[in-house]
Design a protein that fits this description.
Layout: H1 3-31, E1 47-55, E2 60-62, E3 68-73, E4 80-81, E5 86-90, H2 93-118, H3 122-155, H4 160-188, H5 193-219, E6 221-223, E7 228-233, E8 240-241, E9 250-253, E10 258-265, E11 277-281, E12 290-297, E13 302-303, E14 318-326, E15 337-342, H6 351-354
Amino acid sequence: MPRAKVLRLVLVMLGVAAVAAVIGGGLVGRGGNPPAHQPAALADTVISAAGKVEPLSEEVRLGVSITGKLDEVLVEEGDRVATGQLLARLENADWRARLAEAEATIRIRQAQLARLLNGARLEERQEAAAAVRETEAVVEQTQRDLDRYAALGREGWESPQVIEKTRRDHGVAVAKLAAAGKHLAVVAANARDDERAAAEAELQLALAQRDEAAAMLAKTEIRSPISGIVLRKHRRIGEMISEAQDMPILSIGDVSVLRVRAEIDEVDIARLEVGQAAWVHADAFGDRRFPGHVSRLGVMLGRKLIHTDQPAEKLDDKVLEVLIDLDGQPPLPVGLRVDAFIVPAAPAQSSSATK
């Protein structure tokens, strides 16, 4: 074989060997080797999983319970908020007007009930009593006139027409006296039970309408249920917000303690215990570790929700959620994906092994 052909054959074989070495090294690094921040010796002694940073309170998404147009947003992302603090407001001029109307109606109903319970004013009672005395005097006068004209009529000195007119006048006076007496009785009497019940019911109705208007007005104001910081501002002034859809205005969270929600593969759950030491790592912080401990174990397996976006990642594995409380105040933003590592409990030896 000519020397040139032999040389070309040798070069081709060397090239193939080099390519195979590169591919083989890449496959090993992608598949079985642990990450650079995880020593190979730890791969068999710690439990590793993907996780996400979240506040102590988790993310609290604040929405509305009525439909309306967003009128004000009083905070910005990163602002600290206190429990009960007003954060945003929907347009509510109509509900403020209804509340004012309801409060005015309450005052009217209270006055009507007080008038009913207190009875008529002193001046009204005095006026009714004077009317009775006046009609009594008229009755007495018409009675004397009737008696005198009747006596004269019997003597033939008075006409029957005059006597009849006097009798009619006396009857009218008697009727007026009866009416005046009834009016005085009504003015001086206490309220009947049914009247009092009706007035009290009207007052209770006005109070209920006031409470309804106040409750609807309160629904236009979005207040913080916890102390924490504003994580995200989702909506802007002028946008229509509906309770029928997932339309949060703000997200807030208590970041006094940061947690990592890690998803542990089902094959490792037997080695988990509350209180175990743990740490997390984030690519953005190099080889820095952020220590913590396991604070809570889930009670139900589920599908993965946190993904690493690695080609070889299995998406159908069953996982158990574990919460890791981080020590101190690590500079990790909420929502950051991290790698979590838990130092497992030592496996218990079986009775047969101890023998």
